[in-house]
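Last lecture ended with a question: if I hand you only a sequence, what can you say about the shape of the protein? Today we answer it with a concrete record. The protein is non-specific serine/threonine protein kinase. Below, first the input exactly as provided, then the predicted structure, then a couple of comments.
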Amino acid sequence: MADLLGDPTWPQLHRRPCTDTPWPGLQCELAPDDARHLRATRLHFGPDVATPPCRPGARLAAPVLLGLPHLKTLSLFGCFVVADLSSEPIKSQEMRAHAAAAAAAVELPPALFTNASSLEQLVLKSNPGLTGRIPATLSDLRSLRVLSLSQNGFRGEIPPELGRLAALQQLDLSYNNLTGEIPEEIGGMESLSILDLSWNSLAGGLPAALGSLRMLEKADLSHNELAGPLPASMAGLGKLQYLLLQENPIGTAVPAAVVGSLRRLQVVGMSGCGLTGPIPRGAFAALASLAALSLDRNRLDGPIPASLAALPRLGRLNLSQNRLAGEIALPAEFVARLGRRLDVRGNDELCVGRGRYGGAQASYLGAPPCAAAGGGSGAAVGGTSSSPVESSAGAAATAGRGFRVYGIAGMFGGMVYHLLMLSCIPFYETMF
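The predicted structure:
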């Protein structure tokens, strides 16, 4: 505690933190086998009113957890920040030493988790000074349900040992400097419902082991260097609702058999994935819950399937910046309902049939009138397409941030499943 707070007197002032004056950031529970004793079970530091902030020069020493064997939740927000010593003049030697301590990078000591078998939630977020590799010893925390290491400075590969965390329900390693491939061992996380590896430098193909995560509801692998195609095993992810793959060099058509099998999908994001070929006409037909679909900034060609308008819950559709061609033959009612949430701009070969849409609708579609009665530069939108290509989401990156903003805030109070998933719902309101 003294290492985190920068207060060497803390152990003397708080010899019994559970029974003395209540200390912000610490929660205690009655021992199940002895109601006369209290145990420290939750420890939270963060830049908010309810909890104390870490002090400059904070450290993570092994005794933090070794002395709290009953700890269930450890949350550290904004504790380890790399200071900029040149941003403003530092007048005194003491202030300079203070700032230099804050600037020093911190690594997670592997021994930190040696005696933490009770830990269920580990949330270390927004600590850019927290660097080094993710310790493989995290795999010893067999009770862990939430592991969030987002927005730190971790580097290196994802430890394959993490696959031993069979009870883990949420894994968030987003916004770090992780490299290498997604390990096949990730398939051992059989309870995982939320997986966020976005905004790293992960490379290689998507492992077939992803198909073993049968409880998965959200997969955000966006903003990496991952290559396609999607493994066929992912067709078995029957609970998946959010598939975010944008800004990866997938470079192929998305297998229609995979996406079309994911009947609970609500958001599909594959913007900027290098997808080619036509949009397959029936790939999304069975996705009755689909609310947001983004395929922008790819190399898709051919007509826009009119069948997209039959999706009852579709509220956002971004097909901009592709090579789509032909007359836009989406029903006028569909175009009016989506309004500016329908984006087909940047497809030079698309055109609008005369009299099909009102002036305002035709204007924001951004396509010229078809030159001839036959449909200008190509077939009407309802044209058939048998090549397998689909999904993309430009602002699904915004979605990823939305998940984190809502989810992390609730982690200290308990499991954040509902907050994380509910935060997905309004995400597509900010797309485009």
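Comments.
1. The mean pLDDT is 80.
2. The chain has two domains: 1-141+153-160, 193-432.
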